[in-house]
Amino acid sequence: MRIAEMNWFEVERYLETDDRCVLPLGSTEQHAYLSLSVDSILSEKVGADAADPLGVPVFPAIPYGLTPYFMDFPGSVSLRLTTYAALVRDVLDSLYKTGFRRVLIVNGHGGNSPVQPATMEWMEDNPGARCRFHDWWRAPQTWACVQEIDPVASHASWMENFPWTRLPGRTQPDEQKPFVPFDRLRDRNAAAVRQLVGDGNYGGDYQKPDEVMDRLWSTAVAETRALLEGDWA
């Protein structure tokens, strides 16, 4: 149940019997031949698909995150850490003010992880508040599924290539790209990162058959739903 498909009367009625919601975190950054909004698309959709049978509201994905290393790729947008932490905290404060107490953050971008302490501060400051920070793609069952399919998988590779992240009419390379040397990414500025990674894929096939991706997606949705249904006590 996406918030975009609800009005405030309906949210108020929902809060009479439940206080859970999903807050997706995304990013706007290069993903090789895929959409620049991959992380936002995937975090919101996995949250919505997981929450739909439960009737839990899903807020729009925050479309910008922390991605300074991709700022040499046109179209990428990065926030400062202080800005992002304040933004996430303001959103959580708003949710608490209006009656939500249990928030599942579905994060779609690894670079956003430094903001997790802000969610813990929020819980300390708000009695009864609970917040779970879920990196959906590297959660245990989902990551195990990725490894079973093909361990050569990374940013902008096949593991992010779903029908809803592809761009119509764009041809994907028919090859497996070797992993970029990750140890050399840690001390490079954005221009050097672009030089190192080339088209943006960090390593792996660019696309897998849809039936393979359906298996991965089903695993991710089920694992995310289990967090919503799990013990919040």
Describe this structure in words.
The chain has one domain (3-229): Rossmann fold (3-Layer(aba) Sandwich), CATH 3.40.50. The protein is globular and about 55 Å long. The longest helix is centred in the last third of the chain and has 20 residues, at 210-229. The two termini are 24 Å apart. The chain is built from 7 helices and 5 strands, in the order H-E-H-H-E-H-E-H-E-H-E-H. Strand 2 (102-107), helix 4 and strand 3 form a beta-alpha-beta unit. Helix content is 37%, strand content 9%. The protein has helices at residues 8-14, 38-51, 81-97, 116-125, 140-149, 190-197, 210-229, and strands at residues 20-25, 102-107, 130-135, 176-177, 204-205. The strands form 2 sheets. A 3-stranded parallel β-sheet has the order 1-2-3, with helices on both faces. It has a two-stranded antiparallel sheet with strand order 4-5. With 233 residues, it is of the alpha/beta class. GO terms for molecular function: hydrolase activity, acting on carbon-nitrogen (but not peptide) bonds, in linear amides; metal ion binding. Belongs to the creatininase superfamily.
Layout: helices, strands, pairs:
Blueprint (H helix, E strand, L loop, with lengths): L7 H7 L5 E6 L12 H14 L29 H17 L4 E6 L8 H10 L4 E6 L4 H10 L26 E2 L12 H8 L6 E2 L4 H20 L4
Parallel strand pairs: 1-2, 2-3
Antiparallel strand pairs: 4-5
Helix pairs in contact: 2-7, 3-4, 5-7
Q: Please provide the ordered H/E string of secondary-structure elements.
A: HEHHEHEHEHEH
Helix fraction, binned, reads 25-40%
Q: How would you name the CATH homologous superfamily?
A: Creatininase
CATH topology: Rossmann fold
* Radius of gyration using CA atoms only: 18 Å
The CATH architecture designation is 3-Layer(aba) Sandwich
Q: Numbering strands along the chain, what is their spatial order in the largest sheet?
A: 1-2-3
Main sheet summary = 3 strands, parallel
Mean pLDDT: 97
Q: Please, how many domains?
A: 1
Distance between the termini: 24 Å
Number of distinct beta strands: 5
How many helices? The count is: 7
Shape: globular
Strand content: 5-15%
Quickly name the level 1 CATH class: Alpha Beta
Please mark out the parts with pLDDT under 50 across 5 or more consecutive residues, or reply none: none
